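Marked as duplicate of an earlier ticket. Keeping the data here for the record.
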Amino acid sequence: MTSSPLPTSARSSAPTPGLYARVVLQSLAAVVAGFVAMGVVAGLGLWAAGAAGLPGGFPAVLAAVVVMASGGKVDLSGDAGALAGTQAELTAMPLTVTLVGASVTGFCFLRPLRHHAVTSARELLLRAAGVVVLWLAALAGISALARHDFPLTLGGGDAQDPLMDLFGDLLDAVNPTVGFRTDLGPTLFYGLLWILGVLAVALLVSRRTPLPSRLVRYQEPVRPAAFAMLLLLLAYVVVGLVVGIVVAAAKGHAAETFAVLLLGLPNVTWLALGVGIGGSWQGKAEGPFGLPMPQVLDAVLRGGGDSPDLSTVDLSSLAAQDARAWWLLPVAAVLVLAAAFLAAVRSPARTTLWQHALHLGVAFALTMLVAAPVTLVEAHFGLSVLGIGDLDSLGGQVVLRPDVWKTAGFGLLWGLALGFLGGLLASRVRRKGEVDRDT
């Protein structure tokens, strides 16, 4: 009597030593490719910003930018001895570096899966776990490199400001420094959330990557809208890139412009998306520091003067500084409608108009819940000498905080309205009853 062989699905679901080896190598490739891509973009951006001339600190600054782009936390510190007190903090995410790293890592994670007709939940979890563990290990190693101290110099022989010269001479005597360190605990925690989010989004937006059988029923309502939202965010980045190149060519300051493009382009363009649909940010800029962003935004942030209240950054406040800001509204309408149309075309023909509206409304709201918070910027530096003045007297601050729920709420309303309209437009270019087989 011979025993019947195991079904193919049962045999394929059991991991083998060969599978473990492939998963480790492919996960390692995804992690290395992601960090290399982030390092290249961050390095070019820092070089354009003039950071290559830092005294022995460029590798550490590069590591810090990569850590911040991965969701990590970098703390600033200062030491001016007993003569002075210092305070510094920085919270920001260089989203160009983030976007490049996420795209490369997600692509490398999905590529081996696209050759499969089906994917078991066990193999998918195994591959995700391999990428997550190796990513966190690499992030911890890079965090160890993200630490450096720079000398702090005041004065400079300004005959009109002898007090600052005196402060400078006093501080030079104690060798004051300002530096940065990686806070490893929060870095690994937020880095874990970051890489899990990257892998989840990669699976959500991919058309060709098979899902485990239990998840297949969710791909029709989720994947078309998720892919459309990804393209919407990328479209804003592309538009911003074109505008930035034109500005660099027409008005000069090419190095500074390319530094912004290579480090923080989505910080600007995704804010433009949120403002264009009716969202808002709260912010303030004081002192010599400023945002590497359009002048109109800096003008709004400095509009409050010495008032402790934050200024509101929205469509009306930007347009009060420059009437061309009103173009953000029609640009948002056109691009969101294009995303809605794309989502409807990729959906099965049996999907109703109200389902199109609901899918896009939820997807757009969730997109803004993710995109708005990562544009947060908080930078502060203060110095008081011999107890004279407070820590803001010789420093400054830049704050830009999103009104997340307001912006997400407008995303929901826009998604519902334009999702319905996009579904209506898509019904005119497809045959009745046709099903998109790619989903």
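See parent ticket for discussion. Residues 1-12, 156-160, 386-393, 435-439 have pLDDT under 50 and may be disordered.
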